[in-house]
Design a protein that fits this description.
This protein is α/β, with parallel strands linked by helices and 370 residues long. It contains 11 helices and 14 strands. It has 2 domains: 201 residues, L-asparaginase, N-terminal domain (Rossmann fold, 3-Layer(aba) Sandwich); 113 residues, 3-Layer(aba) Sandwich (Rossmann fold). The chain is globular and about 60 Å long. The protein binds D-aspartic acid (DAS).
């Protein structure tokens, strides 16, 4: 999307230059620029930015607090107002849906957010939707939207690793870059995107890889593209079905089937697994060591879990594919493997799958497909 600059008159140029600096133009210049500016404004994509909280809405006690601050403090309208450059790219409108740290997201909030984005995407006066979000679980929200939204319109999720009060805060540029992407025709039909640190990631593959660094977001197979000097450059396409091409729809769904994750480690307690399974989940993701390996003393407890819930083997390593019927007897145990999906994303896909089926073979096919 090209940056909208008023070019029709000298006065217009002066006004545009001042606006670019966030200063107000003298009255005469504003008058002279008005007709051309209106034409430009009408042509700009209309983006709704939904605020959910997180560090991008955070505030620290001093400018050197980059890790010690309160998240979810600043309203989305203020976050937008702090980046006046965004108006050169799109007509934006803020909407506050939550004011929370993203660690506090749950299925109810995910559904509420997804339903709102879905409504907005259906509106003819909305061209794209952006969501400001905490970075901790941004990948889960983005993946959930990627699997459920029925739209080709750009949906871009963003956050920040440093609050707006910090020296070298990353939120303002992330917000601007996200608007550049959301406003671009190239972003259409590419599924839900996460734009952080000048990179454009597919919701399917992105993950937060570091607790503090600004360059924390990584994609399993690399980002789809980059944003350079107000322009998005795409180099890859998502290969897996998303949004309009999935069988999942949240219309008419008021709650999601309960799925839990059990984290494997040396000397884990089988009773903890039993207690978790006893909470009534319809499936359990076993975040195993290495290739989703199951400890010898966990086999019988997992066989027991399978009597009341689906069992999905994933890996806690952060990357790589869990191989079926290698060291484990998946066919015999009627277990599913999560392919290359992280335990947290496997949880979301399994939960959505359970709205359609409880057949482990069908779920396995979904893991190969999505
Ligand atoms: N607590 C975090 C969150 O809201 C921090 C962040 O946004 O980076 O996810």
């Amino acid at each position: 999307m090209t940056v909208a600059i008023v070019r029709s008159t000298t006065a217009g140029l002066a006004a545009a230059a001042l606006l670019g600096l966030g200063l107000s133009a003298p009255a005469a210049a504003q008058d002279a620029a008005a007709p051309a500016a209106q034409t430009q404004a009408a042509a700009k994509p209309r983006i709704v930015i939904i605020g959910t909280g997180g560090t991008i809405a955070g505030a620290g006690a001093s400018s050197v607090n980059t890790g010690d601050y309160d998240s979810a403090k600043v309203a989305v309208d203020k976050i937008i107002a702090a980046v006046p450059e965004i108006k050169q790219v799109a007509d934006v409108k803020g909407e506050q849906i939550f004011q929370i740290g993203s660690e506090s997201f749950n299925d109810e909030r995910l559904l509420k957010l997804a339903k709102r984005v879905s409504e907005l995407a259906k509106q003819p006066d909305v061209d794209a939707v952006m969501i400001t979000h905490g970075t901790d679980t941004i990948e889960e929200t983005a993946y959930f939207l990627n699997l459920t939204l029925k739209t080709e319109k750009p949906v871009v999720v963003i956050g920040a690793m440093r609050p707006g009060t910090a020296l070298s805060a990353d939120g303002p540029l992330n917000l601007y870059n996200a608007a550049v992407v959301a406003a671009s025709p190239e972003a259409k039909g590419k599924g839900v995107l996460v734009v952080m640190n000048d990179e454009i990631h597919s919701a399917r593959d992105v993950t937060k890889s570091n607790a503090l660094k600004v360059e924390t977001f990584e994609s399993l197979y690399g980002p789809l593209g980059v944003v350079v000097e107000s322009k998005p450059y795409f180099y890859r396409l998502p290969a897996r079905p998303h949004t309009t091409a999935t069988e999942f729809d949240i219309d008419g769904i008021d709650s999601l089937p309960k799925v839990d994750v059990f984290y494997a480690h040396v000397s884990m307690d089988p009773k903890a697994l039993g207690a978790l399974a006893g909470l009534g989940g319809k499936a359990l993701i076993y975040a195993g060591t290495g290739n989703g390996s199951v400890a010898d003393y966990m086999e019988a407890p997992l066989t027991e879990v399978r009597k009341s819930a689906l069992v999905v083997r994933a890996t806690r390593t952060g990357s790589g594919m869990v191989v079926r019927n290698g060291e484990e007897r998946d066919d015999e145990q009627d277990w599913v493997t999560a392919a290359d999906q992280s335990p947290q994303k496997a949880r979301l896909l399994t939960s959505l799958a359970l709205t359609k089926t409880s057949d482990p073979k069908v779920l396995q096919e979904m893991f190969w497909k999505y």
